[in-house]
Specification:
Two copies of one chain form a homodimer.
Chain A: E1 22-25, E2 30-32, H1 35-38, E3 51-52, E4 66-71, E5 77-80, H2 81-87, E6 91-98, H3 104-110, E7 123-132, H4 133-139, E8 151-156, E9 170-174, H5 175-179, E10 186-191, E11 194-195, E12 205-207, E13 220-226, H6 233-236, E14 267-272, E15 278-281, E16 283-290, E17 297-303, E18 311-312, E19 314-316, E20 330-336, E21 345-355, E22 380-391
Parallel strand pairs in A: 4-13, 15-22
Antiparallel strand pairs in A: 1-2, 2-3, 4-5, 6-7, 7-10, 8-9, 8-13, 10-11, 10-12, 14-16, 16-20, 17-18, 17-21, 19-20, 21-22
Chain lengths: 393, 393
Amino acid sequence: MSHESQIKVNFDNEPYRNEEFVVNYKAPFNAEPRPERLVQSFITPIEHFYVRNHAPVPVINPDTYMLKIDGLVENPVLLSLNDIKTKFEKITITAHLQCAGNRRTMMSEHKKVKGVGWGIASLSNGTWSGCRLRDVLMYARAMPFESGAHHACFWGLDFGCPEDNGKSYGSSITMEKALDPTGDVLLVYEMNGQTLPRDHGFPLRVVAPGIIGARSVKWLDKITVSSTESESFFQRRDYKIFHNGIDWDNVEKNWDNHPSLQELSVQSAICVPAPNSRLFLPFTLYGYATAGGGRKIERVDISLDGGQTWDLAELMGENKGPCSRYWAWTLFRYTIKSIDSKVAKKINIVCRAWDSASNTQPKFVGDIWNLRGVMNNCWHNVEVTVDPLCSKF
Amino acid sequence: MSHESQIKVNFDNEPYRNEEFVVNYKAPFNAEPRPERLVQSFITPIEHFYVRNHAPVPVINPDTYMLKIDGLVENPVLLSLNDIKTKFEKITITAHLQCAGNRRTMMSEHKKVKGVGWGIASLSNGTWSGCRLRDVLMYARAMPFESGAHHACFWGLDFGCPEDNGKSYGSSITMEKALDPTGDVLLVYEMNGQTLPRDHGFPLRVVAPGIIGARSVKWLDKITVSSTESESFFQRRDYKIFHNGIDWDNVEKNWDNHPSLQELSVQSAICVPAPNSRLFLPFTLYGYATAGGGRKIERVDISLDGGQTWDLAELMGENKGPCSRYWAWTLFRYTIKSIDSKVAKKINIVCRAWDSASNTQPKFVGDIWNLRGVMNNCWHNVEVTVDPLCSKF
């Protein structure tokens, strides 16, 4: 947000927000729910759904709103909201969105990184209704891949991004993802069965499941089919992961030779209990696990001794059968019945998830530290005190 | 191999093998190349391609060979080798195959596991020609997914598997993978441009890229479309990954609630130099990196200090553009130009790879230890002595 002071932006028309939110940045608004809210329902209620804005929320008249589609398409078109709702099949998916900066604060505690601080709750799970991006791109007659149509670039109407000299937010995904019949990228006008709220992109947003939230552009203004990725700052100079040898002195020559983040890595965190709680047994802990690319969470391991020994958590996810479209998160729980101590004892509870490709989370945050603080998916630890003498019953 | 003594199996008709192979088990034959052979070419020559057999190599007459397709298909068929070659389009892909037991010996050194010991070379990269499994399944009119056609089960002609009471080898993949137009599962009759050799499944084998080698059944006898996974021992009682709390005392009740391994996790290893070498600078190290599910290797990090600080290796892979069909491996190299010492010094070289979903390798083998010793993809370390006083030039 270093350029903020130079950009005149108007935050007078922001929507109402839940006062319970943990606000990580006020303007632009960036907030996450209290972690326990995440595990209270499979679908996160809108009032608790995390918000990651890069600029003021635009005021858009849905009656005059037009989506533009141009670039490498044979039929550049303007589509009204009514066109979107009536010309194309309505699809509903359940998918989680997750910021690439989820758990950044923990990374910054290890060694300072740049970016909005986030705890463990910059993700949420929702239902999304709209039309397939694929259908719209076919309506516009997107040119074949061989002719160079490699990227679907999205621009928002949220002008005034401080990080990008007041431009609106932009980003892109590959045409391979955009056109994949099983990729489920939608242009969304309803969230959890309601009209898409202003904070989440009213009247129309992209939801690109399985990849970092930064690609699901809100307040969608334009889709440009292009041979190159989005020219936006947020595609080219942000949302990339480096090794720890790259710092602010040498990063400039490294932006272009590192890929922009797309698919999410495997992730999990314990939402209940909070760190430093005092637990009375039996106690049931709760958390979430997610994977990118539609991969299924196959297993969540719980350790009560800092990662020396493990046991299986109970998974509460969708059962979609042998299929690779697990866009939703998986919630998990695990009941601690007893501990090997007769007096109150501090224990280190750890969780780690495994996806259907046997990928799992790294152990230490230091090993994956990177200067933008993205993709922190290290083991999540919660230190608590267990009191075996007091029981809830 | 505990049942071996009870099964009468005849190993009199085994093919000729390269005497340079590191033989991990003689009969059934299990062998890997010397690691340096892997990095000498992008395509592994057949004489160095690792071999993982579960039984004697069957003697099959290609003129009378018939592939059977049955189960949930409307048109059960028998196809001759000539049918396979002439009725269906010939496709060639480049793909690596990797045993789920690759690097098992290292896991066993941490704590004993069961299974054939493998070093770092139970993988190889080849070109494979044949027809699409998808085309054959459509020819047999496989029933729709909704009618229960969820798994493609393969049986080999390699009768005499000691681990399964003399039955032939069997395994399955999901119909989703089998039918995916971009999944590239082939029925292969040529390897590296030559007739498929006997050790690799002559006259016909499955190559299911992106998933563990155990699913690419050799000497293919029959494909059964089924609502359930293969009933084979090798699908139900082998090739599964557990946490370290599961041992031989409690594993029996855990086989069924753990998924069979399918997609490979992200992996890498240093093939040159060998451990305990003495290096003269400059020295270029070489290795391989792989990912499952067609994901691209985006980055390989090299550390010369045991993982404290990292630098980028140079990648030598395929450039397939923005696409998710990176079935081949990626080779890498890194030149050590100098070290911070004027006398000979022991250093710990480490590599780790990152795939396009930002998944990376676990640090410690102990953290992913499992009783069958599968999916060991921890950081690969090579301890060497660097002598800065002697130069090659």
